[in-house]
Design brief:
The chain is an alpha+beta fold and 109 residues long. The protein has helices spanning 7-15, 20-54, 105-108, and strands spanning 61-64, 69-75, 79-85, 88-93, 97-101. A 5-stranded antiparallel sheet has the order 4-3-2-1-5. Strand 2 (69-75) and strand 3 form a beta hairpin. The N and C termini lie far apart (83 Å).
């Protein structure tokens, strides 16, 4: 009847009798590594973007997440109106602003 249960499975129960705290070190270490290399940097980027969006003002030159470059002409709670060419204005969400350009950047384009 020993052909139904392999010798390796029968010995597995005796091998697992080590310290349970050592068995928890690997999962805890993996969670710590995930936090410091993935979660924490993402939270930092989200905070920086939130500050950028809150500090938007009329006259800022911005780039949207869709690649539209323009100057803010009007700004509301959720939307900003951007002039992309003379006489051409587009309304976008404030959260779609990816970055603020230095003053005078639009003249170089």
């Amino acid at each position: 009847m020993s052909f139904f249960i392999s010798d390796a499975m029968a010995e597995g129960a005796a091998a697992g009798s080590g310290d349970p705290i050592i068995g928890l070190l690997f999962p805890i270490g993996m969670i710590a590594i995930l936090y410091f290399f993935m979660i924490r940097p993402q939270m930092k980027r989200q905070k920086e973007h939130r500050v950028l969006v809150e500090d938007l003002a009329k006259g800022d030159e911005v780039v949207s997440s869709g690649g539209i470059v323009g100057k803010i002409t009007a700004i509301g709670d959720n939307f900003a109106q951007i002039e992309i060419a003379e006489g051409v204005e587009v309304k976008i969400r404030r959260q779609a602003v990816e970055s603020v350009l230095p003053k005078g950047s639009l003249k170089e384009l």
